[in-house]
Amino acid sequence: MLKSWEVISLVKPRFPVLIELAPSILSADFAHLADQVERATAGGASVIHVDIMDGHFVPNLTIGPPVVKSLRKATRLPLDCHLMIENPDEYIPYFAEAGADWISVHQEACRHLNRTLHLIKSHDCLAGVVINPATPVETLTEVLDIVDYVLVMSVNPGFGGQQFIPGTLSKMKKLAEIRAVRGYNYRIEVDGGVALNTVGGVVLAGAEVLVAGNAVFGSGDPKANASALLEAARSASLLRV
Ligand code: DX5
Ligand code: ZN
Q1: pLDDT by residue (tens digit) across 99-115?
Q2: Can you tell me the distance from the alpha carbon of 191 to that of 175, in angstroms, rounded to the nearest whole number?
C-alpha cells in the first residue's frame, strides 16, 4: 500500500515550464546599480529580486522604498520585493507605491498571513509567501490557494553568498506535487546559494523562478554569469519527466 506522499509523487509536473532568473541586487555594486541590472538583463534575467531587511527579522539591514523607486526608473523588469521584515503590513503600501510588482512576506513574520496576502493583492501586486529552511510546507496549507508564488529559502535569510541547504529541495518537490494534485497556480521560487553547481537540482525539484545574488553579481560579468546560469537551468528543465 502506497503512503499518501508516494501517491502524490506519481503526479507529473505541468508543462511547459517557464524558468526565470531573478538576480538579487544584494550582491550588486550599489554605486552602479542601474548598470549592474542592465548587464544581468542582457544575460537573460527577467525579474529583479530586491532584498529588504530590517535588522530585526534578520540580522542585517538593507534598503527601503526610495531605492525601489529609483530602480523602478532604471528597469522595465518586474521588481520582486522580498520583505524580510517584521510588521510587513505597515510597509507594503510604501513598497507598492514605490513600484514593486511582486511582494513576498515570510510566514514566520505574519500573525495574520491571509490578511497580509490580501493586502498585497489589494495594491495590484503579485503576492508571495516565503518559508525559512526550518519551516515546513505544511504551515502554508491554508494559503496555497491564494498566493501567486511560494518562495523556498534555501539558506537562512540575512546574507548573500551562503551555502545552499540541500534539505530544502524536498520542499520544492512537495510544493510542485501539491500544486498538481490540487490544481493550484502558484509558481515556485528558490532563494539562496543558487549557482552553477546547484541550479540543476533546484530546477529538477520544481523551482521555476531562480533567485541568484552572488552567482550573478559576485565576480566577473553579470551578463555572462546570468546567461550561464539560465542555460544550465534550462538544460536541467529538459530532464524533468
Ligand atoms: C538572503 C537573500 C537572498 C540572497 C541570495 O537573505 O534573501 O536573496 O541575496 O544570495 P545568494 O544567491 O548569494 O545566496
Ligand atoms: Zn531574497
Answers
A1: 999 999 999 999 999 99
A2: 15
122: cell is 489589494
Task: Report d(CA 241, CA 238) in Å as an integer.
Answer: 8
How many C-beta atoms surround the C-beta of residue 195 within 10 A?
Answer: 19
Q: Which of 54, 80, 148, 191 is catalytic?
A: 191
Task: For residue range 212-222, list pLDDT tens digits in order.
Answer: 999 999 999 99
Report the DSSP beta bridge partners of residue 211. Answer: 22, 191
How many of the other CB atoms lie within 10 Å of CB of 176? 23
Cβ proximity of 203 and 61 under 8 Å: no
Q: 0.90 cut: is pTM over it?
A: yes
Average pLDDT of the chain?
Answer: 94
Residue pair 116/88 in contact by the 8 Å Cβ criterion: yes
Catalytic member of 51, 54, 80, 148: 51
